[in-house]
Amino acid sequence: MRADKRKKLEAAGWAVGGASDFLGLTPEESAYIDMKISLGNALRERRKSQQISQVALAKRVKSSQSRIAKMEAGDPSVSIDALIKSLLALGASSTELSKAICSAGSEAA
Amino acid sequence: MRADKRKKLEAAGWAVGGASDFLGLTPEESAYIDMKISLGNALRERRKSQQISQVALAKRVKSSQSRIAKMEAGDPSVSIDALIKSLLALGASSTELSKAICSAGSEAA
DNA sequence: CGAAAGCATGCCATATATGACATACCATGA
DNA sequence: TCATGGTATGTCATATATGGCATGCTTTCG
Question: Does A23 have pLDDT greater than 90?
């Protein structure tokens, strides 16, 4: 239940908009991972739109550059809590968070 | 930064729909806690609507009754990850999760 | 060609969340 | 009355996530 996620994530570079689990993931696992990826993307976008580096963001949220990178990458070692806290720190509204999470569920429109 | 949250939560029974932080919480902390409470409520509702007990849900998500209770209570010791995983296990869609999260941001309409 | 800035990835010690268990509380009904 | 089922709350050992750090890889700019 650890290797699975990693595999999914490794395949994620590919899964641009996607959710599909051709790996052995339950729908819940898949949904969970998709959410992380969505939030990670949202984080990167928000950070870039504010023109700040990972290092700067790390300082802002009292974390480290490596962790920010992992967050944006949807690394299995980062929690959704971390993603959410970082997004909030960048001024994201809960509405915005909702959008990111919801967009995780959009099956290949 | 630990006692604060607990305090907020203890006061939360009162904060029915609310967010306001008359305690010393930053807006982000407040938003984060509100999300947890919202998700906790969503979890309880969904569980009740499916007529299952905390014990049953615990078994389903491979956890324990106490943890479910804490989740529904928005206890500081539970992560949003746990909440989300449990909701997903109860068949909640990402859209539904979005709604719960978003409703956390609704300032005393 | 360096040097510097930005990012990715691996590792590790420590902090934090988790499951499990015990216990207590409140209903309901026998 | 006392069982029984459902829930709340505390504690503890262990699992997991985190911050920090080192390192390597690209670009860009001098």
Answer: no
Q: Tell me, yes or no, whether B107 lies in a domain.
A: no
Tally of domains in chain A: 1
For residue B94, give the CATH number of its domain.
Answer: 1.10.260.40
Neighbour tally for B15: CB within 10 Å: 16
Which positions in chain A touch B84 (Cβ < 8 Å)?
A: 32, 35, 80
CA atoms within 13 A on the CB side of B63: 18
* Residue B98, CB, strand C, below 7 Å: no
The H-or-E segment that residue A28 falls in is helix A27-49
In a domain, B6, yes or no: no
The answer to whether B33 CB is within 7 Å of strand C is no
- Residue B108, domain member (yes or no): no
Nucleotide nearest to A73 (CA to C1'): C8
d(CA B65, CA B47): 13
| pTM, full prediction | 0.86
d(CA A82, CA A61): 10
The 10s digit of each residue's pLDDT in B20-59 is 445 678 899 999 999 999 999 999 999 999 999 999 999 9
pLDDT value, residue A104: 75
Domain residues for B36?
Answer: 26-102
